[in-house]
Amino acid sequence: MKITVVGLGYVGMSMAVLLSQEHNVYALDISEDRINCINEKNSPIVDKEIEEYLAEKPLNLTATINAEIAFKDADYIIVATPTNYDPKLNFFDTSSVEAVVKQAHEIAPKAVVIIKSTVPVGFTTNLYQQGYKQVLFSPEFLREGQALKDNLYPSRIIVGYPNGDGSLQAVAEKFAQLLEQAALSEETPILITNATEAEAVKLFANTYLALRVAFFNELDSYAEMRGLDTKQIIDGVGLDPRIGTQYNNPSFGYGGYCLPKDTKQLLANYQNVPNNIIAAIVDANRTRKDFVADRILERKPKVVGLYRLAMKSGSDNFRQSSIQGIMKRIKAKGVEVVVYEPALNESIFFNSRVINDLEIFKKEADVIVANRYSAEIEDVMEKVYSRDLYLRD
Q1: How many C-beta atoms surround the C-beta of residue 212 within 10 A?
Q2: How far apart, in whole angstroms, are the C-alpha atoms of residue 46 and residue 50?
Q3: DSSP characters for 25-44?
Q4: Neighbour-count burial of 285, counting CB atoms closer than 10 A to its CB (0-12 exposed, 13-18 middle, 19+ buried)
Q5: What is the pLDDT of residues 147-161, one digit of tens each?
Q6: Which of 16, 32, 80, 324 has its CA 20 to 30 A from that of 113?
Q7: Residue of 82, 77, 70, 69 lying closest to 11 (CA atoms)
Q8: How many CB atoms lie within 10 A of CB 38?
Q9: How far apart are CA 24 and CA 61, in angstroms?
């Protein structure tokens, strides 16, 4: 089959590589740099499996900026363009998704369009009501830096079809089977449901993960203020099998591409619905950043160094990373901030100097702020402020 994937971030790249093992895949993006990178069999994002598959596997993958070539005669069109929470609209900005769906319908009216971008609850059914009758929603549950691995070994496959149109159920089942056949895991749970419910699953799943992060961060704040050993407490709490040891490593707050925007979007969907927990999750993340910034400022540094901007180890994504929230709070108090980030090409980042030489960075910074530990800074640990207790994720 011919499958077109639009938007070549973590979701789009992992889908394009996954499906191009058995199908003819066209990857469409507005960035010529990304297109050239992929056609040269290099990954435009940091992801070990994607890098390996592009370099070593015989993939049927063509990257292009030409929508006509990408869409024409496509059987499936997978939309993975970015959406972001707009505080003015109090909703996701879905303009990129809407533009792709419209263009796809004009060029390939018979193609099945699958939305992989995170959207507000009710978005897919609204498109259906506008006349786009071949549209599905399939949420992604990927980790940055391990996106292809999570598609090769999916925890579950969920595909939603517009509410009330039973004729699309079989179409949704067929697409789910397509994903299942491309995976390496022997047995993957599959859920075929209404699109609106599938959209809600995505937002609630990510908000629960944000809740876990916020909970263990508040546990850490308590322990730090009371002079207790956070790790001993978390180890004891995690021994309860109902709680477990996932998403329990303290940090500067949840960040990255998904959790900040998805929690705010879900809260926006709660308009006129009684709630306490959902609003508290969003508030807790702000409170944690305030707490961390205050603890750093208590050391009375003249220069604070930020070691890496990415939201977590193994990722090159700076978007909404929690350490940037710490940066803003420290700068607001008049303290100079310098940045060490090898993935940055600029010499200035938000009006702060970028120091490319790690040794110079270590010498200049009075306090080194690291959301996640690295052996690179082990020799200056007396300067380091980090809440990474388990040296992972």
Answers
A1: 16
A2: 8
A3: EEEE-S-HHHHHHHHTT--S
A4: buried
A5: 999 999 999 999 999
A6: 32
A7: 82
A8: 24
A9: 6
Q: What gap in Å lies between CA 195 and CA 247, rounded to an integer?
A: 28
C-alpha span between 115 and 133 (Å, rounded): 13
Per-residue model confidence as pLDDT tens digits over 297-311: 999 999 999 999 976
Q: Which residues are catalytic?
A: 258
| Strands 24-28, 2-6: pairing kind | parallel
Which residues 6+ apart lie within 8 Å of 73 measured at CB? 2, 108
d(CA 18, CA 6): 14
For residue 4, list its beta bridge partners. 26, 77
Q: Which single residue is written with the structure tokens 């419910």? A: 197
| For residue 316, pLDDT beyond 60 | no
In Å, the largest CA–CA distance within the chain is 66
Q: Token pair of 67, please?
A: 């929508």
Q: Would you state the structure tokens that stand for residue 379, as one six-digit string? A: 């020799």
Strands (E), 87-232: 91-93, 112-115, 135-137, 157-161, 190-194
Instruction: Look at residues 106, 110, 100 and name the one whose alpha carbon lies nearest to residue 73.
Output: 110
Beta bridge partners of 191: 158
The token duo for 314 is 């193994």
Strands 84-86 and 91-93: antiparallel
Rg of the chain, C-alpha, whole Å:
22
Sheet strands (E) in the chain: 2-6, 24-28, 61-64, 76-79, 84-86, 91-93, 112-115, 135-137, 157-161, 190-194, 303-307, 336-340, 348-349, 352-354, 367-369, 384-385
Contact 186, 180 (CB under 8 A): no
- How buried is 27 (Cβ within 10 angstroms: 0-12 exposed, 13-18 middle, 19+ buried)? buried
d(CA 343, CA 101): 33
